[in-house]
Predict the structure.
Amino acid sequence: MARIAVLGATGSLGSHVAQQAAATGHAVTAVVRTPDKLPAELRARVCVEQADLAVTPQARLSELLGGHDAVINTAGTVTDGVRFVALVARVVASLEALAPAQRPVAWFLAGAGVLDLDDTGRRGVDLPVVKAKYWPHAQNLKRLQDSSLDWRLLCPGPMIEGEAIGLAHMRVRFERLPVALPSAARWLPRALLLPLFARIVPEMIVPYADAAALMLSYLAPAGPASRRRVGLALPPGMRGTKPGWMTPR
């Protein structure tokens, strides 16, 4: 079992990560701004550390995160723009400040827009409209790529509460969209790619529970997900729904 620090454990995804990790026997540290927001049942099963990632001194963050096998950061939202970019950068810097042998595996959260659309290397976040809303994910990816951390970046579509489908049935793909665009898409200009991208997004509307399970399934250092973007989609033939999914989460 691993020692896991979950940042943002009171949030929608973070709460699933913390609950699943604790339920499967991992030693969990929940790093949260407001401990009272953690359910009492979960507080009793994890170690709770109070910290505001935006203002806690970097040395203190390094102290909190050191000594763990894995750090799973689910804190922050893309709608915070530059503040989200700054938060992720602070977490990365806090991990980089640790001696290389002491650095945990580090999971971060982005969105399907930073995955390659096809073998041309174009990404959803490069498309009109998508770029205007989701550019922080691209900035965070660049920060990770510039680091020497053993990171991995979860890139789902919109996420929803709902019963887990199970990873054995989900589509998982590294670096590229787990749902294929039509082959002719490679020849289209970016403006015409947008409706095709929007059409496949419902296949990537996934339960938080499955997204959390995916993160917890790739905790081994230098494993297959190391320093890679990880896409997640529903089983073939399934489409999810989420009102206002084009609004950034």
Summary: The beta strands are 3-7, 27-32, 47-50, 70-73, 105-109, 151-155, 159-160, 171-174, 206-207, 228-233. Helices lie at 12-23, 40-43, 58-65, 82-96, 130-146, 190-200, 208-217.
